[in-house]
């Protein structure tokens, strides 16, 4: 590379994110849906939006939103049932394109992945050129568009891919990274959810710059083992490697309450929202599981979990929710109030041969 290479010895990471993937596939295959607000999912009963086209998003329709709410936002919304076998087939096409450029591919879901192209420039050009070539090949071979973020680490590459959506790309160089991270609101940081954001806001932390100004020992008192990661990303530092071919073992979500909960009706209401979100995650990734895990954290920070397995994977949200309710009811009356609840599925359905998935932690913060 030339002496003015903006990356120097830093890694070159690309995050590719398909644009409204499921909905775009449906619009590609059904021309009468093009230009119309489209939601993938079930439009009746307790259905949930698995994906929304950009036309639908302009009305505030989002994935994981209850279908009834989505229709209130957009009465002209067209629901189409998901076709996961088609999405998986298109995903395999896309990953075949990635493999032309690097073997270091870490899938996050059917429609997004990290690529480490640090040592690929001699054959394919700069990381920016590679991202442009990949996006062009995807458009030509699948008829779909993708956005790309290019940076020296995974955290910033993922942020960058959102910056020019849809059908664009954005670069964050090592010289730009620290100031870029400092300028962001903490809720824009991947890995900081609403509960953590609220705790940070109470400490006067609203931006990356605010986060960077807090001593590590203070952050550790409030955020435990996550503190070092937060301190690093606020400075544009992320040393996590791109790890290819790691298979997902579980999928889940959790939430920390603003105030402790001790009543069963309130706990059931929270559980319903968690189950809805979990099912949307399953739909977004074309997977399900056969073992349900319920997690409760009491106000003294003690944790209890309950599990129940089926002979086959869950095929309906209602069945998963009903089983979760049974697990929850078995823990009442509570020994003491709870401050956190989570649900997860393990024993996930296997993807078709050759398709690899990324590791996902058992419980992700909501």
From TrEMBL:
Domain of life, per the record?
A: Bacteria
Positions in coiled-coil regions: none
| Residue intervals of the UmuC domain | 13-193
Localization, per the record, is:
Cytoplasm
Q: Which major enzyme category is it?
A: transferase
Query: Which reaction(s) are listed as its catalytic activity?
Result: DNA(n) + a 2'-deoxyribonucleoside 5'-triphosphate = DNA(n+1) + diphosphate
Q: Which InterPro entries match?
A: DNA/RNA_pol_sf, DNA_pol_Y-fam_lit_finger_sf, DNA_pol_Y-fam_little_finger, DNA_polymerase-Y, DNApol_IV, Rev_trsase/Diguanyl_cyclase, UmuC
Key words of the record: Cytoplasm, DNA damage, DNA repair, DNA replication, DNA-binding, DNA-directed DNA polymerase, Magnesium, Metal-binding, Mutator protein, Nucleotidyltransferase, Transferase
Known cofactor(s)? Mg(2+)
Q: What is its EC number?
A: 2.7.7.7
Record's SUPFAM superfamilies? DNA/RNA polymerases, Lesion bypass DNA polymerase (Y-family), little finger domain
**How is the cofactor bound, in the record's words?**
Binds 2 magnesium ions per subunit.
The active site is formed by 112
Q: What's the stated role of this polypeptide?
A: Poorly processive, error-prone DNA polymerase involved in untargeted mutagenesis. Copies undamaged DNA at stalled replication forks, which arise in vivo from mismatched or misaligned primer ends. These misaligned primers can be extended by PolIV. Exhibits no 3'-5' exonuclease (proofreading) activity. May be involved in translesional synthesis, in conjunction with the beta clamp from PolIII.
Q: How does it assemble?
A: Monomer.
UniProt record similarity statement: Belongs to the DNA polymerase type-Y family.
Q: What is this protein called?
A: DNA polymerase IV
Provide the species name: Asaia krungthepensis NRIC 0535
Lineage from the top down? Bacteria, Pseudomonadati, Pseudomonadota, Alphaproteobacteria, Acetobacterales
């Amino acid at each position: 590379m030339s002496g003015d290479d903006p990356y120097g010895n830093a890694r070159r990471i690309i995050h590719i994110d398909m644009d409204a993937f499921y909905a775009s596939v449906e619009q590609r295959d059904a021309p009468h849906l093009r230009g119309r607000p489209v939601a993938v999912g079930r439009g009746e009963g307790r259905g949930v939006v698995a994906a929304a086209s950009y036309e639908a998003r302009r009305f505030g329709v989002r994935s994981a939103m209850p279908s009834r709410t989505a229709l209130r936002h957009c009465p002209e919304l067209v629901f189409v049932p998901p076709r996961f076998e088609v999405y998986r087939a298109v995903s395999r096409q896309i990953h075949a394109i990635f493999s032309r450029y690097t073997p270091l591919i870490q899938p996050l879901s059917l429609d997004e992945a990290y690529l480490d192209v640090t040592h690929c420039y001699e054959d394919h050009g700069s990381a920016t050129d590679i991202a442009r070539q990949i996006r062009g090949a995807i458009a030509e071979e699948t008829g779909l568009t993708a956005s790309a973020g290019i940076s020296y680490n995974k955290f910033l590459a993922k942020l960058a891919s959102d910056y020019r959506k849809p059908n664009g790309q954005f670069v964050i160089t090592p010289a730009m990274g620290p100031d870029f991270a400092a300028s962001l609101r903490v809720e824009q940081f991947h890995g900081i959810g609403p509960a953590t954001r609220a705790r940070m806001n109470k400490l006067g932390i609203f931006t990356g710059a605010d986060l960077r100004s807090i001593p590590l020992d203070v952050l550790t008192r409030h955020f435990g083992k996550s503190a070092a990661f937060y301190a690093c990303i606020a400075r544009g530092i992320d040393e996590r490697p791109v790890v290819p071919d790691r298979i997902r073992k579980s999928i889940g979500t959790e939430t920390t309450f603003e105030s402790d909960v001790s009543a069963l009706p309130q706990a059931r209401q929270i559980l319903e929202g968690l189950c809805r979100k979990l099912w949307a995650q399953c739909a977004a990734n074309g997977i399900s599981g056969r073992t349900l895990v319920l997690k409760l954290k009491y106000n003294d920070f003690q944790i209890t979990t309950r599990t129940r397995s089926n002979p086959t994977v869950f095929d309906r949200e209602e069945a998963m929710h009903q089983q979760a309710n049974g697990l929850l009811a078995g823990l009442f009356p509570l020994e003491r109030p709870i401050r956190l609840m989570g649900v997860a599925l393990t024993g996930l359905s296997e993807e078709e041969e050759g398709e690899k998935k990324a590791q996902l932690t058992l419980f992700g913060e909501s």
